[in-house]
Design a protein that fits this description.
Blueprint: H1 4-9, H2 13-18, H3 20-31, E1 35-37, E2 43-45, H4 48-54
Antiparallel strand pairs: 1-2
């Protein structure tokens, strides 16, 4: 099964799992999106610039 988030990020499962927070922040910032990374612990990140536009 292909994990869409890994495919979009261009990273392997091992690379993501090494530092899930850094991978999520990097992707969300680079693409100016809010990202939800599911797993044992769910990570939700959004770039500050994006949040400021919403508020």
């Amino acid at each position: 099964m292909l994990d869409t988030s890994l495919w979009l990020a261009g990273l392997s499962t091992k690379e993501i799992q090494r530092d899930r927070m850094a991978a999520a922040v990097h992707y969300a910032t680079a693409h100016q999106v809010t990202l939800v990374l599911k797993g044992a612990w769910t990570i939700i990140v959004a770039p500050v610039e994006l949040l400021m536009r919403i508020i």
